[in-house]
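Q: Hi! First time asking for a complex rather than a single chain. Here are the components, and I think there are two in total. Is that enough to go on?
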Amino acid sequence: AQSVTQLGSHVSVSEGALVLLRCNYSSSVPPYLFWYVQYPNQGLQLLLKYTSAATLVKGINGFEAEFKKSETSFHLTKPSAHMSDAAEYFCAVSEGKYGGSQGNLIFGKGTKLSVKP
Amino acid sequence: GAVVSQHPSRVICKSGTSVKIECRSLDFQATTMFWYRQFPKQSLMLMATSNEGSKATYEQGVEKDKFLINHASLTLSTLTVTSAHPEDSSFYICSARGSRLSTDTQYFGPGTRLTVL
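A: Yes, that's all I need. Here is the structure of the assembled complex.
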């Protein structure tokens, strides 16, 4: 069964500093991996996704993530944090193209990012 | 493109009443819709998956008679919480996956905050 582990439930950075949110996955087949962002009282917005093409994936708002099979990781980074980046970030895995029989996503527990001025 | 809406955004009801939540894909046809539940400061838990025109598939532990899901068209799915109780209070989020979009990506609605008194 697939699973996702996000290290650190809360990460705090200063504005302009590097953002690094960690995600490790477990999957028996090549995974599809996603990062979503959630602002308070809102749904989830797709930041980026890895679907077995390039291992370095660029997303919206300056975020990118690198798929490392040897480390079973898909960490999310952004060179310079902005105040507007403060939100909850979720890593998710979908096994194969449709996530098993019905394309389910398995979410990590989330990492809350705080950005200090 | 790929906008998903939910209505209502917030609902407060008395214990014992039923509440219907609508999920609509506004600019694409959603062949599959997903319903999630999110408790405060926790991740999303998949409740059920529905394909247009067929019965929903519920995750283990989710009562299908309590959480009625109807996916009557390619743009609308509804979740009805029957005989709601305070423990049903939660943030309910739907997502949709379309046949003409990236079939590996779920697009999420903004969520519905249900409070049962």
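A: Chain A touches chain B at residues 32, 34, 36, 41-46, 49, 51, 90, 94, 97-98, 102-105, 107-110 (CB under 8 Å). Let me know if you'd like any chain examined more closely.
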